[in-house]
Hints:
It is a single chain. Strands 1, 13, 14, 15, 16, 17, 18 and 31 form an 8-stranded mixed β-sheet that branches. Strand 2 (15-19) and strand 3 form a beta hairpin. By secondary structure, the protein is of the alpha+beta class. The chain has 3 domains: 3-178, Galactose-binding domain-like (Jelly Rolls, Sandwich); 185-350 and 462-496 and 515-599, FAD/NAD(P)-binding domain (3-Layer(bba) Sandwich), CATH 3.50.50; 366-458, no CATH class. Helix 3 packs parallel to helix 12 (558-578) and helix 13 crosses helix 14 (590-599).
Amino acid sequence: xxxxxxxxxxxxxxxxxxxxxxxxxxxxxxxxxxxxxxxxxxxxxxxxxxxxxxxxxxxxxxxxxxxxxxxxxxxxxxxxxxxxxxxxxxxxxxxxxxxxxxxxxxxxxxxxxxxxxxxxxxxxxxxxxxxxxxxxxxxxxxxxxxxxxxxxxxxxxxxxxxxxxxxxxxxxxxxxxxxxxxxxxxxxxxxxxxxxxxxxxxxxxxxxxxxxxxxxxxxxxxxxxxxxxxxxxxxxxxxxxxxxxxxxxxxxxxxxxxxxxxxxxxxxxxxxxxxxxxxxxxxxxxxxxxxxxxxxxxxxxxxxxxxxxxxxxxxxxxxxxxxxxxxxxxxxxxxxxxxxxxxxxxxxxxxxxxxxxxxxxxxxxxxxxxxxxxxxxxxxxxxxxxxxxxxxxxxxxxxxxxxxxxxxxxxxxxxxxxxxxxxxxxxxxxxxxxxxxxxxxxxxxxxxxxxxxxxxxxxxxxxxxxxxxxxxxxxxxxxxxxxxxxxxxxxxxxxxxxxxxxxxxxxxxxxxxxxxxxxxxxxxxxxxxxxxxxxxxxxxxxxxxxxxxxxxxxxxxxxxxxxxxxxxxxxxxxxxxxxxxxxxxxxxxxxxxxxxxxxxxxxxxxxxxxxx
Length: 612
């Protein structure tokens, strides 16, 4: 039976924190720890930059239900409220502070409106609050539906105390107030620790578990599937079950909903199906809403990863023999000091005709997809002065946004993820307001309303972890034969660039893309692309494997990434059997890996995917 770890427990008490020269008495509340989230959603995309996950009032212009919970105060009396938040539109000096909200304490609304001060995450003062009994209900009351956000609240007994906001000071304060301490809970020791629960990570975990390994699968969202979840809504691409190892892809099929199309209703991506397959594996220990934020090493090997439960702030140590980075961003590898690349290599360096003449930091971008729905009656959507302003020449006269609503190609997809996503919000809301209220085509939009807008960005590219082999364009187009070629990739060399028409109107802040395709035959991706060349027990599957920017254009689609996961799970079983490294599998046990790939780990009989 699956062991689901990290279930929510909410406790808040008056504590005293002393550290970094600060001494504070009060009640600290992680907003994401409130037991009734109401209509607010959990956002963890910028945790490395701002120190925590936070709750987001993502209502598409309609205020969402209150996020609230019961809080225990050991002392009654006067407290001084601080709320960690930001005016997210102030990043662009935009007027209006769209993310406004208030705090409610036992039914009484605190007069201060939050989310109105400053572009950066900081503590906003809320004034004096009277606490008249030991247990009170504390909540967040959204005023706009336009992406109000709250990290934490602090009720201080000392009027003069200001909570720290620098990254290290805040982390110490947070841990002290929550009683986390300096140590970590022991989550256990595993044969393999898989970080990232997209298609690659989920397939890795299933493959390894079916071959007898004890697996920790750590996912920083509440659902599995990554870009193929209901949160991002990208359908699966690439073909499976092809030579030279037709059994690779069987697990991908088990997880596949069978529906095609991006930005479709949530049930098309069938989050529950993925969870059901994982829950059936007794050797998988699933840790949802858990974000890996540190690693510990012995020499060139990872000994543990440290994960934080985003709801309870518990920090746990996961011990393992092998670690697999399926985060997409190469987070585990980066924290472990693995060699990596980010951006485009130069043509001189790689010899690739599709590479630019000079290396740069450009990547393929993040898509924030959306769609509208038609109602029986006319609907309204107010103007958004804080959003990007459109006119007849610059507007996008469409009813939905697909993959090509893609932003941030000239920004860092890891460190600027919140910026890129928020820029996409300003585009979507500003364009929709113009089309509804001012466009010559506004009659077409009269009965349309925004039905869904993603708040988790769908990334294509960030860090790529370097292995013993770095796959490049020539290998793919010249049909280079590798003795460790396994996972057959069928997608074209699909590279994205800013749409020139969009760049003309929005230089350096594009939000629409084009795709250029390089022809290729189906080819098998080598195993040597799937383990780190300098971290001895680190493997990877997904878009962070060892390829050039150009080659990533064909390896990054999710059915292909899922097959990588199946293979990595098999390689992990060989590592355990012979107590060897991932590199040793290639050098000494390649025939055994080939035998496992020939047999596969799918559950018979193989099911036919509807619509295929």
